[in-house]
């Protein structure tokens, strides 16, 4: 085989080469954090089984978490642009570690609700800072590859976390909370030590400089960008569908007679496939038209969720996961590259926060919609979720020409 084959050094260089050490520190921290991210996917099972809540009550508590996450994205975007990516990410992870420990010890309903809200505020603060940091470090042509590698790290850790989380749920949920806290803390400390601040300088024409040198502009400027607003609405819609895998699917499986271990094994198929396949395809998909690739991926994800209505065995659930995972592999790295292309350098944190706000909004709606539809029946839930993703795919095709113009402009 030549050096350009799948096993050769040319292949590895094309996927891994040319990215700065600070990016790899971020990648490593992301991987470590994701390995320990066990609580969030199993929180619905934890609330219903360990705390004895009903489906409706568990859905409401998860929605409180979603409200916190929703608010955190606006705050985190502002923090990342005002104070810097490094301190925002590290502070968010340290706060997450402390809150995970507190949630593990919370027994009363008021304590659980309050701690879940705080966890929602802290656990996703890193996202706008991480997205903006990559845009600061990586030139436009390499951004899909960089975001794809972060996506790969997330899923490499996810494959481990889901299997381990299922077993730890049986051994005792306290282990899950402790490990999650430890890996969050490790992520924050690694970034603090190994990642320099990348906040762009504000000097230049156009009146960007403010009295403190940090620049003018705020979320009002983001909201004036109609294309970014449209993309954010599409993101919210697609996230409502995608989040069912981690909110409603475990509830549907456990209430169908399966165990937390069964869910952990089935959902781990998602991470394993991404780890094995995405590095082989991500660079190629990243060089195609972003809006078309993302639309196709969302349509495939929708088909995978719709198939879930027809399954009743572990093998059937695994097959549906394989199908929607194929769509997820197609889309890897594309949303981050789109946001980076749309954002002016001095507003990258806020644009990333807007994207995160849309994502968190979808995650907030998902358990409310999903648990409500699950009470009607799986035959209603899963086709409806598939249809939602088709709507998002159609929206992407509609804004595709405008996205192509902005992406081309950002590359020059």
UniProtKB/TrEMBL annotation:
One of its GO terms (molecular function) is transmembrane transporter activity. It is found in: Cell membrane. Residues 22-404 form the Major facilitator superfamily (MFS) profile domain. Keywords: Cell membrane, Membrane, Transmembrane, Transmembrane helix, Transport. PANTHER family: MULTIDRUG RESISTANCE PROTEIN MDTH, RESISTANCE PROTEIN MDTM, PUTATIVE-RELATED-RELATED. Coiled coil: none annotated. It is a multi-pass membrane protein. One of its GO terms (cellular component) is plasma membrane. The chain crosses the membrane at residues 22-43, 55-80, 100-126, 147-169, 175-195, 226-243, 263-281, 293-315, 321-343, 355-374, 380-403. CDD domains: MFS_MdtH_MDR_like (cd17329). It comes from the Bacteria. InterPro entries: MFS (IPR011701), MFS_dom (IPR020846), MFS_trans_sf (IPR036259), MFS_Transporters (IPR050171), Sugar_transporter_CS (IPR005829). This is Predicted arabinose efflux permease, MFS family.
């Amino acid at each position: 085989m030549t050096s350009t084959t799948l096993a050769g050094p040319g292949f590895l260089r094309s996927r891994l080469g040319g990215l700065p050490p600070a990016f790899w520190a971020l990648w490593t921290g992301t991987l470590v954090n994701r390995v320990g991210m066990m609580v969030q996917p199993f929180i619905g099972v934890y609330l219903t089984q360990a705390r004895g809540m009903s489906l409706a009550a568990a859905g409401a508590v998860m929605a409180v978490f979603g409200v916190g996450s929703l608010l955190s994205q606006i705050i985190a975007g502002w923090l990342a642009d005002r104070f810097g990516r490094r301190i925002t990410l590290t502070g968010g992870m340290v706060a997450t570690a402390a809150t995970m420990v507190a949630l593990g010890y919370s027994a009363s309903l008021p304590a659980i609700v309050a701690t879940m809200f705080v966890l929602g505020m802290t656990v996703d603060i890193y996202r706008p800072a991480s997205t903006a940091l990559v845009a600061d470090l990586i030139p436009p042509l390499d951004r899909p590859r960089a975001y794809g590698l972060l996506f790969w790290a997330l899923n490499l850790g996810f494959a481990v976390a889901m299997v381990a989380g299922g077993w730890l749920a049986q051994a005792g949920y306290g282990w899950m909370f402790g490990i999650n806290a430890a890996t969050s803390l490790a992520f924050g400390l690694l970034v603090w030590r190994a990642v320099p601040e990348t906040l762009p300088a504000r000097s230049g024409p156009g009146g960007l400089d403010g009295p403190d040198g940090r620049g003018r502009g705020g979320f009002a400027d983001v909201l004036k960008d109609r294309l970014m607003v449209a993309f954010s609405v599409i993101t919210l819609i697609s996230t409502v569908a995608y989040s069912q895998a981690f909110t409603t699917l475990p509830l549907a499986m456990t209430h169908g007679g399966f165990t937390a271990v069964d869910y952990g094994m089935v959902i781990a198929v998602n991470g394993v496939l991404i780890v094995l396949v995405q590095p082989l395809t991500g660079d190629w998909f990243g060089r195609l038209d972003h809006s078309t690739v993302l639309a196709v991926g969302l349509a495939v994800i929708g088909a995978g969720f719709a198939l879930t209505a027809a399954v009743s065995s572990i093998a059937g659930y695994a097959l549906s996961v394989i199908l929607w995972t194929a769509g997820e592999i197609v889309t890897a790295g594309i949303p981050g590259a789109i946001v980076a292309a749309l954002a002016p350098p001095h507003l990258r944190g806020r644009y990333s926060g807007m994207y995160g706000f849309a994502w968190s909004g979808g995650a907030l709606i998902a358990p409310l919609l999903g648990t409500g539809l699950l009470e009607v029946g799986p035959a209603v839930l899963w086709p409806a979720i598939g249809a939602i993703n088709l709507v998002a795919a159609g929206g992407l095709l509609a804004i595709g020409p405008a996205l192509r113009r902005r992406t081309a402009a950002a590359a020059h």
